[in-house]
Amino acid sequence: MSIGVAVIGAGMAGKAHAAAYRTAPTLYDSILPPVRLVSIADVYAPLAESTAARFGYERFDTSWEAIVEADDIDVVSVVVANRLHREIVEALLAAGKHVLCEKPLSDTIDDARAMVAAADSASTIGRIGLTFRRSPGIASIRRLVQSGRLGRPLNISASYWADYGCDPEGPISWRYKGPNGSGALADIGSHLSYLTEFAVGADITSVRGGTLSTVFPTRPKPLGTVVGHEGGAVSEERDTVENDDVATFSAQYENGATGNLQVSRVAAGHPNSLSFEIFCEKGAARFDFRNPGQIEIFTPDEDPGTSGYRTVVLGPAHPYWRGGLPMDAPGVGVGQNDGFVFQARAFLEEVAGIPESESLPRNADFADGLRNMLLLDAVAQSAAQGGATVPVGN
């Protein structure tokens, strides 16, 4: 048995998936079947060709249909614009491929529900990538909270600030199109919302105080292809930004905890700043992705003069670390790219039939992806209703 892998979409996240499949077989001790790196597909042929060559894939294709029809491909990552997810994923599942889809699951609730139904009826596996769950620091805080050492979670404060949209003269792309709530909220707020649920250990049941703001109402049209968050030459013609640059909301969790969340794609000086702090009855913990190799923990000290947060450097005692890094000693750097590798490894283990007890934690399923979209939709409804309390739908 061998597993043939392809990636549809050769942009920024597509490259992360492509690299992850190359590295995933080298992790840990459980032996995967041989993994064949077969194809990178992208409508922009030069990008598909260069990405395939860079990461050692056998060929490149310029249509997702070619991946569907290929007999030598078993596993496919779908890393394209959200509005394209449903058609591609349904076709892949129908063709007997295992699918790992990037978040958010789709651009509409109806399409997401259809994708859940398609995965439920398929003979193969459909999963969604919630990559930040794979961060050793975030997973360590979740484990600490679940252990009860910090007591009952009370409140979590979280933010995800990015600056890819802070230049008003940056080219418009698909990321700036769609209804309110499909901008920063869907792009990076999807990450922030699921990771707070992961850390707190409970689902968000309702939201309130939703606000969605568009800071730059227009952007110039590009003269060429826009890849990821990169800029490029632009024309004098401008187009309308349809969705949100900044989003904020408060959350109520199933276990009684509350949360305050803020996301922005126009946060100058913050290329990729995700952080949170969770407050519990017996202490607190915090994490900042700008320092991903450490967490900070507070537990009261008997001496007020020495009480305060302490820094814990991550190492083999923490999730994913031992065997998950070539150098797995304490203090060795870890980052967002490693999360994609752990995610790919977990997906390949599941496809190969390795028991869950001998594997990394399974990836989230499409139902989890739908629930995340329902949560973001509740935030958009709250904003449309002047900050009203809105329950998260089913």
Which characteristics define this entry?
394 residues, 29% helix, 7-stranded mixed beta sheet, alpha/beta, 9-stranded mixed beta sheet
Q: Count every helix, treating DSSP H or I runs of 4 or more residues as helices.
A: 9
User: What does the main sheet amount to?
Assistant: 9 strands, mixed
What gross morphology would you assign?
A: globular
Rg from Cα: 21 Å
- Series of H and E elements: EHEHEHEHEHEHEHEEEEEEEEEHEHE
Q: Helical residue percent?
A: 25-40%
Strand order of the largest sheet: 16-15-14-13-7-12-11-8-18
Q: End-to-end distance, in Å?
A: 39 Å
Low-confidence stretches: none
What would you say this structure looks like, in words?
There is one protein chain. The chain has 394 residues and is α/β, with parallel strands linked by helices. The chain contains 9 helices and 18 strands. The chain has helices at 12-23, 45-55, 64-69, 85-94, 109-121, 136-147, 184-200, 336-351, 366-384; strands at 3-8, 35-41, 59-61, 75-78, 98-102, 126-129, 153-161, 204-213, 218-222, 234-240, 246-253, 258-264, 273-280, 283-288, 294-298, 310-313, 364-365, 390-391. The strands form 3 sheets. The chain has a 9-stranded mixed sheet. Helix 5 links the parallel strand 5 and strand 6. Helix 1 (12-23) packs across helix 8 (336-351), helix 5 (109-121) packs antiparallel against helix 9 and helix 7 (184-200) crosses helix 9. The longest helix is centred in the C-terminal third of the chain and has 19 residues, at 366-384. The two termini are 39 Å apart.
